[in-house]
């Protein structure tokens, strides 16, 4: 599957370090990973709210199938991402979180605290989390005898979210255009988003945002 790695501004000095670990694990499991995060020497501006919106854009456009994101605590991006339609993001701090999230919740994004738990050996912890995630059978249930109940609960939650959220297209039209431009106006986004985007309406709207931004500067 295609996976997006996203970090926000506060973690930009760790981008290269984190992405290297994510890439290593993704390659082992034959997943393709894209670095949509804030790099240390990059004009991309992405706070935790913007990171959540970016999760929504990428997943609702089917540019990627899964998102690995995070911030200092992991909480902010998780909350922001879960405000988006069709995004189910879990806070993952260890191997147990990773396994239960995939077995029970079967979401499409995880948020990791890159600041709170950062220290000696963090690379081993992150690698273990991602391995545990990718080795786990999605929606397999835990314990096994509760798999049907958990599947029903997940489907019910999805139906509630469909009723309680606007479409991604409607959300983008309501957002401040300068805010959006800061998220998407960079060469990496433009190259990879439009290459894989399956939602014509979202693609056209974001292309207009980029064109208008370029005309202004």
What share of residues is helical? 55-70%
Q: What is the domain total for the residues?
A: 1
Q: State mean pLDDT (0 to 100 scale).
A: 94
In CATH, the topology is named Ribose 5-phosphate Isomerase B, Chain: A
Per CATH, which architecture?
A: 3-Layer(aba) Sandwich
Helix and strand run: EHEHEHEHEHHHHHH
Radius of gyration: 17 Å
- Secondary-structure-based class equals alpha/beta
Strand content: 5-15%
Fourth CATH level, the homologous superfamily: Sugar-phosphate isomerase, RpiB/LacA/LacB
What is the general shape?
globular
The number of distinct helices, counting runs of at least 4 residues, comes to 10
- Walk across the major sheet and give the strand order: 2-1-3-5-4
CATH class: Alpha Beta
Q: How many angstroms does the end-to-end distance come to?
A: 37 Å
Main sheet: strands, sense, barrel? 5 strands, parallel
Oligomeric state as shown: single chain
The beta-strand count equals 5
Task: List descriptors.
217 residues; Ribose 5-phosphate Isomerase B, Chain: A; globular; alpha/beta
Protein topology:
Elements: E1 2-5, H1 15-28, E2 32-35, H2 48-60, E3 66-71, H3 75-82, E4 89-91, H4 95-105, E5 109-113, H5 122-135, H6 147-164, H7 168-174, H8 177-184, H9 187-196, H10 200-216
Parallel strand pairs: 1-2, 1-3, 3-5, 4-5
Helix pairs in contact: 1-5, 2-3, 4-5, 8-10
């Amino acid at each position: 599957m295609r996976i997006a790695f996203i970090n926000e501004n506060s973690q930009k000095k760790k981008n290269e370090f984190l992405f290297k670990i994510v890439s290593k694990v993704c390659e082992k499991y034959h997943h393709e990973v894209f670095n949509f995060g804030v790099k240390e020497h990059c004009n991309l501006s992405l706070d935790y709210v913007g990171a959540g919106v970016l999760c929504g854009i990428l997943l609702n456009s089917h540019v990627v199938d899964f998102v690995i994101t995070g911030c200092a605590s992991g909480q902010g991006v998780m909350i922001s991402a879960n405000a988006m339609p069709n995004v189910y993001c879990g806070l993952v701090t260890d191997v147990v979180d990773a396994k239960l999230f995939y077995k029970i919740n079967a979401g499409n994004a995880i948020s990791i605290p890159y600041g709170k738990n950062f220290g000696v050996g963090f690379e081993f912890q992150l690698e273990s989390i991602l391995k545990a995630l990718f080795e786990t059978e999605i929606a397999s249930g835990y314990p096994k005898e509760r798999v049907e109940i958990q599947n029903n609960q997940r489907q019910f939650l999805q139906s509630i979210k469909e009723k309680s959220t606007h479409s991604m297209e409607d959300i983008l039209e309501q957002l401040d255009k300068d805010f959006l431009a800061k998220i998407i106006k960079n060469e990496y986004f433009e190259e990879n988003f439009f290459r894989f985007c399956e939602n014509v309406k979202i693609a056209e709207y974001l292309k207009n945002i980029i064109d208008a931004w370029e005309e202004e500067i």
